[in-house]
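Input (structure):
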C-alpha cells in the first residue's frame, strides 16, 4: 500500500463571512502531493494549481501567505479536471496522510460542491501527521505548526512554506521520522461522511480509550436516546460500567459522564454531537480510562455546571 501525503491551499471569500458561499467556504486553488511506498520512500509527485470559480479575488490573508496571483490561477484547469487527474494519480491502494484533519474534509467538501463522486460512503481512515508527531514527541495535547516540527527535526528548509508542494514535502519528511508502531496504532478517522447504517458504525480501540462513531439520526434527541449511544462500557473488559455521573452537558454539543468498572477503575465518557451536510446528526463517543487527577477534573466540571445552572434558575 502507498501513502499519499497531500496538502491543499485554498482561497476564501475576499469579503469575509459576508459573501461566502456556505457550501464551499474554502475553495481549493492548489493540490500538492507525494506518493510514498510502504517503506515511506518518495516514488512520485503531483502538483497542480486550480482555476477558481467561486471567489475570483484573493482574500487578503490568502494573498499574503500563498504568494499566488489570480492571473496565474486563471490559466489553470478547473477543480473537476484537476481532481480527476489527482485521484487517478493516487492509484488504487493507498491511504491519505495530511498535516491536521482539515485538508481531507475540505477536499471532500469541494468534491461535493462540484458533484465529483465521493471517495467513500462512510468515515475514512487516514494518518494525521500533526497528531502523530505530537504523540511521538509525547505531548498529546499540543498541535504544532508544520514549520515548528520541521525545525525540531532539523529538516532543511529548502522551499517556502504555504505552498502545497512544499508543505506536502515537509509533511512527508516529518512522517518519515515517526516510527511505524505509532503510525499504525494512532490512525485517524475522517467523518466528513458519517456511517450510513448500524452495520457501518465504527468501534475502535486505541491506547487508553475507545471510539465509537454512530450512524446518522434525524435529531439529536433520537441519537441521545439510542441504547448504544448512551451505553458506557469498560474499554478493557467490555462490561457495562456503573454510571456514577449520568451524561451531562454545558453547551448541548458535548456530553460527559463518569463510570466505574469494579476491575478496571474510573472511566470518562464523552459524546460529541456532529451535524452532517444534510442536517442529520451523528455522534462520536470516546470512553477513556482515567486516573485520579482526571477524575477530579471531570467532577469539578460537573460541579461547576451544576452551580451555573442553579444560579441561572435562582
Ligand atoms: Zn473493566
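Output (sequence):
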Amino acid at each position: 500500500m502507498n501513502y499519499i501525503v497531500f496538502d491543499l491551499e485554498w482561497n476564501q471569500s475576499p469579503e469575509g463571512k459576508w459573501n461566502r458561499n456556505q457550501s464551499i467556504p474554502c475553495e481549493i486553488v492548489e493540490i500538492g502531493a507525494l506518493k510514498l511506498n510502504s517503506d515511506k520512500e518518495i516514488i512520485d509527485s503531483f502538483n497542480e494549481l486550480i482555476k477558481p470559480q467561486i471567489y475570483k479575488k484573493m482574500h487578503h490573508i490568502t494573498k499574503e501567505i500563498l504568494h499566488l496571483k489570480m492571473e496565474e490561477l486563471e490559466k489553470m484547469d478547473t477543480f473537476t479536471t484537476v481532481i480527476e487527474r489527482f485521484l487517478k494519480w493516487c492509484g488504487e491502494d493507498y491511504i491519505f496522510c495530511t498535516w491536521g484533519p482539515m485538508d481531507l474534509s475540505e477536499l471532500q467538501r469541494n468534491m461535493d460542491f462540484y458533484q465529483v463522486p465521493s471517495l467513500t460512503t462512510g468515515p475514512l481512515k487516514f494518518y494525521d501527521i500533526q497528531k502523530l508527531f505530537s504523540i511521538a514527541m509525547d505531548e498529546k495535547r499540543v498541535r504544532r505548526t508544520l514549520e515548528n516540527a520541521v525545525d525540531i527535526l532539523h529538516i532543511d528548509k529548502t522551499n517556502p512554506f504555504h505552498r502545497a508542494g512544499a508543505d506536502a514535502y515537509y509533511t512527508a519528511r516529518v512522517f518519515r521520522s515517526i516510527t511505524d508502531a505509532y503510525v499504525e496504532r494512532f490512525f485517524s478517522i475522517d467523518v466528513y461522511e458519517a456511517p450510513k447504517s448500524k452495520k457501518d458504525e465504527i468501534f475502535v480501540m486505541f491506547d487508553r480509550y475507545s471510539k465509537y462513531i454512530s450512524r446518522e439520526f434525524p435529531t439529536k434527541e433520537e441519537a441521545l436516546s439510542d441504547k448504544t449511544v448512551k451505553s458506557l462500557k469498560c474499554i478493557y473488559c467490555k462490561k457495562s460500567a456503573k454510571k456514577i455521573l449520568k451524561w451531562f452537558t454545558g453547551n448541548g454539543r458535548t456530553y460527559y459522564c463518569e463510570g466505574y468498572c469494579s476491575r478496571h477503575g474510573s472511566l470518562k465518557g464523552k459524546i460529541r454531537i456532529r451535524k452532517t451536510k444534510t442536517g442529520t446528526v451523528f455522534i462520536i463517543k470516546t470512553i477513556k480510562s482515567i486516573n485520579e487527577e482526571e477524575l477530579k477534573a471531570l467532577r469539578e466540571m460537573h460541579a461547576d455546571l451544576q452551580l451555573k445552572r442553579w444560579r441561572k434558575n435562582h
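Notes: The first strand starts at residue 2 and ends at 11. The chain has a mean pLDDT of 93.
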